Amino acid sequence: MHSSLVRAQNVFGFFTTVAFCVGALIAVSVIISPQDPSASIESRNVQVVRGRPHYYSQKKEEYAHIRFDLDADFSSLFNWNTKQLFVYVLASYPSLSPTTPASQSIIWDTIIPSTALSNPNPFNTGNKAPRRDIHQKPSPNKKKVSEQLGVVRVKNQKPKYQIADVSGKIAERGNVTLMVGWNVQPWVGALTWTQWTPWGRWKGVMGGRSEVFDFPPLKGKKVENVVSGGIPKAAEASPIV
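Request: output the structure for the sequence above.
Response:
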């Protein structure tokens, strides 16, 4: 006759085996959930200034500040095994050396939990929702956020992070593209990242890239006058893209 300790070990072993099998089935079952994310992103205002991009920077360097519009629908990425969705926007531009891969810098990110609809803050930035005065009229310019889970709509969004290059110079660099990416964090299973090509019932992201643009000249830099038809015209020092 088995002792109580042996019986407890058998029960615990059976429980862990069943839990592992159930977790594996849940992790694999997400492949039958169709996914068709879409995103549209456009740059609004691009500026290049010289200064210290971070408080710990020891010297001044050029860094870029990019505002953008984002209209994305990630609702299909949420299923029974989705814990939260990490969304980010990155800027990609060629490196100075042709043999070096393109440089990529994240300028904005946010976390959308599966319980976002019950959270006063739709992007779950970790801050409490500000108190609203009942006598205060709503501002007509206030951003509208969809109540649908996984839908992100922001206009003229400020970046969270600045773009600085290892060379210390970034003004007038060309072929810059903004791209939208994400990371699905499940309750059980492996992480999945941005998918550009279709795989089974998972379609590649529709859009997700902005039009190519160039970094403008350094803000405040003097630019020589451009003569057109005998009439001198001052060129813009910091054009808006």
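The helical segments are 4-29.
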